Amino acid sequence: MAESPAAERAAFLRGEIERHNHAYYVLDAPSIPDAEYDRLFRELQEIEAAHPDLQTPDSPTQRVGGSPLSAFGQVVHGVPMLSLNNAFSAEELIAFDRRCRDGLGVADVGYSCEPKYDGLAVSLRYEDGVFVQGATRGDGFSGEDVTHNLRTVRNIPLRCLGKNLPPLLEVRGEVLMLRRDFERLNERQRAAGDKEFANPRNAAAGSLRQLDPKITARRPLRFFAYGVADAGAVAPAPTLHSRLMEQLAGWGFPVAAERAVAQGATGLLEYYERIGAARRALPYDIDGVVYKVDRLADQAKLGFVARAPRFAIAHKFPAEEALTTVEAIEVQVGRTGAITPVARLAPVFVGGVTVTNATLHNEDEVRRKDVRVGDTVIVRRAGDVIPEVAAVVPEKRPDTASEFIMPGHCPVCGAAIEKPEDEAIARCTGGLFCPAQRKQALLHFASRRAMDIEGLGDKLVDQLVDNAIIKTPADLYKLGILKLANLERMAEKSAANLLAAIDKSRKTTLARFIFALGIRNVGEATAKDLARHFGGLDALMAADVERLQQVPDVGPVVAASIVRFFAEPHNVEVVEQLRAAGVRWDEGAPSVSVSSLIACKIFVLTGALPTLTREEAKALIEAHGGKVVASVSKKTDYVVAGAAAGSKLTKAQELGVSILDETQFKELLA
Ligand code: IVH
Question: For residue 489, which of 510, 460, 451, 520 has the smallest C-alpha distance?
Answer without folding.
Answer: 460
